[in-house]
Amino acid sequence: MIGQANRIAAAVSTACLAVLLAGCATVPTGGPTFEGRGGGAQGQVDTFTRLLPAGPQPGWGENALVRGFLKDLGSFEENHEAARLYMTEECADVWQPSDRVLVYEEMDAVRFDVETVEEERAARVRVRTPLYATIRPDGQYVPASPGEAIDVVFDLTKVDGEWRIANLPDTILLSRQDVDRVYRPLNLYYFNRDMSTLVPDPVFLPVSSAVNITEQLSQRLVTMLLDGPTDWLAPAVRTSLPAGTTATVEYSSGNVTVNLDHRAAAADPRRLFGMGAQLVWTLKQLPEIQEFTLRLDGEEVELPGVEDGVLQASSQEWNSVNPAGMTGSPRAYFLRDGQLWSLDVDQREALVPGAAGHGRILVEEHAVSLDETRVAGIMPDDDSVRVAPIAEDGEYTTVLQGGDYTSLSWDGYGNLWVVEDLSAEVAEAEREEDLADDTEPGDTAVGSTERRETDRGEKRQVTRLWLLAEDADPVEVHAPELAGVPVTELRVSRDGTRVAVLTGGADGGQVLVGRVVHGESTVSLQAFLPLARDLVTVTDLSWRGADQLAVLGQKERGAIQAYLVSLNGSGESTSAGAVTGSDMKTITAAPGMPLLSGTEEDTISSSSDRLMWRRAVEGTKPVYPG
Questions:
Q1: Which of 553, 448, 456 has its CA nearest to residue 511?
Q2: CB pairs under 8 A, 24+ apart, for 73-78?
Q3: The GerMN domain covers which part of the protein (predicted)?
């Protein structure tokens, strides 16, 4: 394993049994930060707006019937009882809707083409509309790629003079509005590869008013957690829950009891702790749940060293696997007159010790390790990346050189990620090819042009990504999906399982998130998904929490400002305001900490309430550890 540190917390010798679940603050100001709700609003999961379906109306034509069916398909009550009213009895009896959902923008964007056959006794309605997203059977919400479309056919027949659906797809079609009403964005929690930090796996769960919502969601969350992570995240995470384990869940008056059928886990305190952590962090998103009890094969597990069987949410054991990937209140770091300074939570500034604070070596970009013991910098004078300890005698050591480096980021394993821009090399190679083509004997002008176009149909690598583990040679990261795509920034999640990249030119681009997969001697980035699709451009980004980014972006006809972007892939980016009187150039964020932005006037502004910004200190390029 590359750069894997032995960071499994000592707390794994204890186990979770009964936990007092503290409420989740949207923007915690101190203590442990609790990620959750999949980006949803506070208290969202305990509300549900029931759709009152209209049902088919007498005299409706083919178009109206299918349109009405799509509207009432948003009712999940009694296994889509309302939608079955639009079908023939035979069709209603056999139709089994799948767990896959195709999401479209709105009904006004849906096209209905009707073909009537058999002397007005049968008809076919073709439904087409741009695909907005897909909710996969494992609950993952996946934004659609440009050009993807929904194209399905409904077969209709006359029953007692009224049109009814005789055959239809098993895939559910819902508008974005229906998804917002019927589904709840929540997280499942798994572990990163060294089992030191929990990782959120955003999923969407359907709810109905037929049963208690908390009981319904509790059972569903536990079942999905035992089934394993989404296909997208699975290669990057691990689980403590034994394969094949099943569970029953009981909820009553704020207490949820989970009974697992796998007794063998009780013999391994490390696994037992991990199981409890995954279950509790997953269930604590539901605001009604106040206590949690874990049973193995019906027998309640006892916890040594926990008073009255209750583990406080702020305890060291509980916080040791916090999905935030960091504990306490980290300092921010910024540049002033070539020197690196720190800024604590009370906005007291201090000069960083060692070479970084001396400022004798010019630093263009900088990043501080999560444990705040090392700083990495890009040196423009000799095209190198150097690292120095944050200590009085700390000196810079060159770790990478000879390239045009643009972006730095640290993960929780102590690895440094570096982006290298190859665009100058690509441009020079293309110029040499042009010269060779122009002078090559026997080639006509047309032939040369055609051959160059064919050659350049293969994507050139315009960005190289590096992973630097301590005391190890640099490793080039495999990212085939980014071949030919200029990456201006890369930020790795603090748990080390995902990366957010900013693609495009100097004027900004789009945000993608991909998973990190480690092999024995290789590292690869895979399965990139788009985020912040409602923003026309993004110019900077940072991880705010384990399931949320902070970005500088712009909507159509809007100004550059801060936004919060959920990693669940749905919904609009949430405005976090803008600095008044000065353009925002950079942004940095950390769990439970104020947002910080560097401005064009070489000042740094902060915001704790996500809307009001105020000047904090003079300086440039603020960063939190990571």
A1: 553
A2: 73/172, 73/173, 73/174, 73/178, 74/174, 74/175, 74/178, 74/181, 74/182, 75/50, 75/51, 76/182, 76/206, 76/207, 76/208, 77/50, 77/51, 77/208, 77/209, 77/210, 78/210
A3: 218-305
Q: Could you tell me the two tokens for 582?
A: 């000065």
Residue with tokens 């076919």: 124
pLDDT in tens, 63-103: 999 999 999 998 888 889 999 999 999 999 999 999 999 99
Distance CA 8, CA 497 (A): 16
- In DSSP notation, 68-132 reads HHHHHTT--TTTTHHHHTTB-HHHHHH----S-EEEES-GGG-EEEEEEETTTTEEEEEEEEEEE
pLDDT single digits (tens) 335-347: 999 999 999 988 8
Q: Name which of 381, 424, 409 is nearest 542 in CA terms.
A: 409
Rounded Cα gap, residues 343 and 597, in angstroms: 13
Q: Count Cβ atoms below 10 Å from residue 557 Cβ, excluding itself.
A: 6
Alpha carbon distance 385, 398 (integer Å): 6
Longest dimension (CA), the chain: 91
Q: What is the arithmetic mean of pLDDT over 356-381?
A: 93
Place of tokens 């009403």: 181
Q: Is the alpha carbon torsion for 479, 484, 485, 490 positive or negative?
A: positive
Q: Give the three-state DSSP class for 270.
A: helix
Distance between CA atoms of residues 562 and 554, nearest Å: 9
Describe the crossing of helices 445-455 and 423-439 by its angle, rounded to 10 degrees.
150
DSSP letters for 426-467: HHHHHHHHHHHHHH-TT--HHHHHHHHHHHTTSPP--EEEEE
pLDDT in tens, 167-222: 999 999 999 999 999 999 999 999 999 999 999 999 999 987 756 788 889 999 99
CB 147 within 8 A of CB 78: no
Tell me the pairing of strands 162-167 and 183-191: unpaired
Q: Which residues pair with 603 in a beta bridge?
A: 618
Q: Return the residue matching tokens 């040499």.
A: 432
- Counting every residue written for the chain, the total comes to 626
